[in-house]
């Protein structure tokens, strides 16, 4: 369990002494309350032109969602609008 915000990698060493290290992963939030967790489904996955993000809870305008690519860049910012789903169009995600 991680209890400090930061970047973390894992290094694995084989029985022959060979090592391999993962790319770092950034931890930006800690101690999330179990009751505050919201589950998410993305349909369809993968998608061609648009996808729906389905949440278990209603997203209010106070909820802010960031879509982050594999390089850590924010490619889209979304805001809740009083429903349990958001539509993401593929255009301009790259």
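-> sequence recovered:
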């Amino acid at each position: 369990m991680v209890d400090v915000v930061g970047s973390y990698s894992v290094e694995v060493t084989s029985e022959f002494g060979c090592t391999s290290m993962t790319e770092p992963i950034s931890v930006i939030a800690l101690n999330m309350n179990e009751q505050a967790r919201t589950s998410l489904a993305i349909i369809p996955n993968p998608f061609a032109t648009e996808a729906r993000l389905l949440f278990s809870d209603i997203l209010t305008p106070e909820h802010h969602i960031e879509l982050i690519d594999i390089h850590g860049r924010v490619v889209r910012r979304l805001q809740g609008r009083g429903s349990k789903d958001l539509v993401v169009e593929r255009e301009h995600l790259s």
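Residues 6-89 form one domain.
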